[in-house]
Amino acid sequence: MNYKGILESTIGIPFSSGNAIRVLKNGKEIFPAMLDAISGARHEIDFLTFVYWKGDIAGRFARLLGKKAKEGVGVRVILDCFGAAFMPRELVEHMEKCGVEVEWIRPVKRWKIWKSDNRTHRKVLICDGNIAFTGGVGIAEEWEGDARNPSEWRETHFRVEGPAVRGLQSAFLENWIETGHQLHEGLPWQEDDGEVRLPDEQSIKEIPIQVVRTSASVLWSDIMILYRTLVGMAQESIRITTAYFNPNEAMVTLLCEAAERGVEVHIMIPGEHIDKRVANIAGGDRFQPLLKAGVNLWFYQKTMLHAKSIVIDDYVSCIGSANFNHRSMLKDDEVNMIALSAELAELLVNHFQEDLTYCDKIKQDQWEQRSLMQRGLEVVSKFFKQQI
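Structure tokens predicted for Cardiolipin synthase:
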């Protein structure tokens, strides 16, 4: 199947070639790689995140960003006013004192509450326009460690090199301009210092990548169209890992049709350990038709599952900040990458299989016997499903 042609025609965004991706599993791998890239930056650091809370890692990022600013590196930071609301004020003050440009995006205003509902959920770090990171990680103690227990979340993040970095840079710049700034001349990827940069040796190389960014929409967004396209073109397998599962009826129908035409469909979501219990309740009323159609549903039980990925036919990988829920598809700013690589897909599938060992399968007969309270909560959740 011509996956590349279908995705380019449907989304309207071309793939770039010559990219490299390193998969980073859990904070144990994610944070050292990000901090190392920040330490090595010489021109500019752009950092956009939804979650920035507290803990040792929050302080380490703030201090290092401040240090780089003092060294003369241009450091720009965008924090979501809702997601980073609990960030210690002293960390912001430290960065600003050191010369970091810190912007808070979309402050919550009572008289414009309808605008406050749309957040920027993107997580992007770009160093010198050459190395970028994206995925699901937030800067908080919950993400530290190696998902060994409920206090250490399960996460996947990605280190990117190549032309796709420009697509991630555009996601940062879109929000930067929204905060009132103008574009400056000489974007960092245009720097030519004569240095020959070789891709990270741990990365998977020569990957075609399509970068898709999306903002709030009424009925459709690029992420919504992307997800529908991925599910619709799958021939053999679909593996979805998501922190929050709340698709609309049309998406549920597509997943059921895929299973009914012989596609092996697996969906992994958080189980006992989840930071937003309402998310599981809201998604629960979609389980019955999925199970009846033969979709395999899994509750990850080891810790909070915050990773986000979709792998189609062991070849197409969709990775980034968006969950498989209404909010990511229609309400928030997100950025995802679609990568065409059997090697990358194999690695993500291996991670999926490893995570399955900590999962409980949701069985149709057991789900039909769930409690009246559970059913009642699912009915109540319908009134605010669009917020989840």
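Residues 110-114 have pLDDT under 50 and may be disordered.
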